[in-house]
């Protein structure tokens, strides 16, 4: 029999509200609407499916404060992560939001109504306190703290919801199970003891070994339950990961394991998140839950230290294990013994035995460079899937972003670099000069800071898409502002390499090279907001290369850029 839901009753709002779905759908079309963010959509999907039982909506102020302070709802039920619907003052004014008003919550992907919220209250959260209490620190190095301060709006809306319809998914539908569906599946197969394994990463042989050991030691079956909502920035995409899970589950003994996807927006909150994960898995019917070293940890803080202790998550869940009624299975680190071709727990390695391991950093290096990944570490079919989605750098795209004053010769460098890279071969090369982008994509924009930032944002987007397709991209705008350049870097680095080249031609030399007389016109006031005259150029803080055409030839500069790309592995296989 599957585990009892948290709070005693599975809050399956979709099933509860199914008899009045047509009325709710009709009403949703007449109400003001809030279009959800991606995180809010993930949260709402798990609210209405019962994954967040005993919640029936977004936290009101009383529940929010209680969860932040005491890891409990106001009624005393254990719940460790605040689930909030954030809105702005503009939203409140435009939609006339107020207590007792009903509003439709819509899917941002297709504008479909998902639920109707009856507002209980609107309140201002203490974000610093929330960060310190929930995440342990108000440090922007923590991705959830950064999201809280930079993305979450200034007000929270609390209230229960009625389910109109669950969000529609078009990928891996067969693996997307609600708590009720998983419970029915366990009952059909007579799985009475289920060990849930949470992951946001690809699985390899060691993961298979530890989950099999956990299942056998508890006389249980295994639920591979990966997160496919929002995870840590930089994680491997869920499409690749699910293909890996499909491959590796065939390596389990027949009938031992099942795969089900969880549409969760992770917060990387370490101990509190582990407790939250345990509650969610209990709601889905699991009786046991594997918690690893530094479970849901975000890595290092701004001082270079871990946000959480390696076993803090295990300690916190163990503290509440009787209350949540799910058994914690500590993650046993396993090590490969080449002489016996097996994985064993690290604390069971015989004295003097030879061991082998590959760290996550080393695995990423081997994927990046195309170096060999041995079969003892991961199955060949898993490695093939990872290489397909994450080819070595020699097959990846990149962007070379040249920035500098007008008439700094960055355009000459860009054109020469295009010729050199075309001669190199191996990928298509796209050249995006400042005047080209202005004419084709941004002809309506002027030269205010805001409009310049919009122009660079568009340039970053186009460069990222070309980079994603495996092209080499050369861009040469003035791009005078550091923040806009950094945003372009972040956009492109999701898809490939980004190399910022500061063309550090002195302003006096650029003026001397300006055959069009643009600087002179700016000096006379005929052109306003001209970089270097009455608008600043912010010197790049994070350039991969700084060049100066006043003392180096264009050919020398191009050679330096090509060497940089070669050193980073973008030419030829290793």
Automatic annotation (TrEMBL):
Catalytic residues in the record: 199, 200, 201
Sulphate adenylyltransferase catalytic domain: residues covered: 174-388
Domain ATP-sulfurylase PUA-like: 4-165
Originating gene: MET3
Site entry: Transition state stabilizer: 204, 207
GO cellular component terms listed in the entry, alphabetical order: cytoplasm
Alphabetized UniProt keyword annotations: Allosteric enzyme, Amino-acid biosynthesis, ATP-binding, Cysteine biosynthesis, Cytoplasm, Methionine biosynthesis, Nucleotide-binding, Nucleotidyltransferase, Transferase
Name of protein: Sulfate adenylyltransferase
Stretch list, region N-terminal: 1-170
Stored PANTHER family: SULFATE ADENYLYLTRANSFERASE
Binding-site residues, ATP: 198-201, 292-295, 334
Marked site: Induces change in substrate recognition on ATP binding: 331
Classification via InterPro entries: APS (IPR002891), APS_kinase_dom (IPR059117), ATP-Sase_PUA-like_dom (IPR025980), P-loop_NTPase (IPR027417), PUA-like_sf (IPR015947), Rossmann-like_a/b/a_fold (IPR014729), Sulf_adenylyltr_euk (IPR027535), Sulf_AdTrans/APS_kinase (IPR050512)
Listed GO MF terms: adenylylsulfate kinase activity; ATP binding; sulfate adenylyltransferase (ATP) activity
High-level lineage: Eukaryota, Fungi, Fungi incertae sedis, Mucoromycota, Mortierellomycotina
Family: In the N-terminal section; belongs to the sulfate adenylyltransferase family. In the C-terminal section; belongs to the APS kinase family.
Regulation: Allosterically inhibited by 3'-phosphoadenosine 5'-phosphosulfate (PAPS).
Segments for region (Allosteric regulation domain): 396-574
